[in-house]
Amino acid sequence: MILKLFLPVFATILIGLSDFYPSPPSGPCDSPFVGGHTGAPGESSCTGCHGGNANIGPGSLQLELSDTTMLYTPGEIIDATVTLRQSGRDKFGFVGLALKDENNSTIGTFTIDDFIRTRTFSDGPRHYVSHTPCGADATPPDSLSWTFHWQAPATNVGNITLYLAGLAANHNHGLSGDDTYTLAVHFLPDSIASGIGNLAPPDHLHIWPNPVLDFIHVEINGAAEESPGYQAEIWSTNGLLIRSISLLQNKISIADLQAGIYLLRVYERDKELLGQSFFVKQ
Fold first, then answer.
1. Taking a C-beta distance cutoff of 8 angstroms, is the pair 140, 176 a contact?
2. pLDDT digits over 169-200, tens only?
3. In this structure, how many other beta carbons lie within 10 angstroms of the beta carbon of residue 224?
4. Secondary structure element (H or E) that encloses residue 193, with its range
5. What does the pLDDT look like over 34-55, one tens digit per residue?
6. Is 105 exposed, middle or buried (0-12, 13-18, 19+ CB in 10 A)?
7. pTM for the complete prediction?
């Protein structure tokens, strides 16, 4: 499973949400709307129909975002690209759902530009973005991408999570032998920055993987492979300094941290802030 956030991909105003999700025109690219398979709380992933376990296949589910701070500003529109990769497969699909962490209710608004390959729809109280049947074929095979937009709510509603599930199908016209992949991407209100300090541009700092289980790998633009004298800080989202360490290697152990969202800041020897990025500890 790979989540790729570029450094140098969701739902909006709660009133009248159903008006933003009209039924698309019927035709060869339409099919019944079936939600409930993003892996979000109260839902299965694609494994609910296709069986097996998620994230054990040889492929990857990747998300690229136009805003990599992992902070949302009320009303902000974030561009997203979802990419599924698996060698030898020529049939792919995805579905996404954005929920407010406080009560797991739909939040924000999905919009699309490509009405042939992607669609938005509602299933019960939840609102989704997904591929269409016409957007599932990969020619050439091995990978497929889709784009969409997500507009943040008009006010700060606390933490928001985007849930994504993708399927790399073997095209046997059945439900067996397919591989499912999932991602959960966490967005925080930009107001949390006031408790941590001014956010620096992320251009000089690249971290991976994200989400992370044991080690964060750190790349600083222009720095040598070893970075003696650099200082790293890990902050909680409520502005508490959790850890301050010397960055002697380009990786940091975070295995002992509790699951949650943290901010990594890296400083030069003179305490100049080189960059910072949020990460999710699984």
1. no
2. 987 777 778 999 998 888 888 876 655 655 55
3. 8
4. helix 193-196
5. 778 999 999 999 999 988 899 9
6. middle
7. 0.70
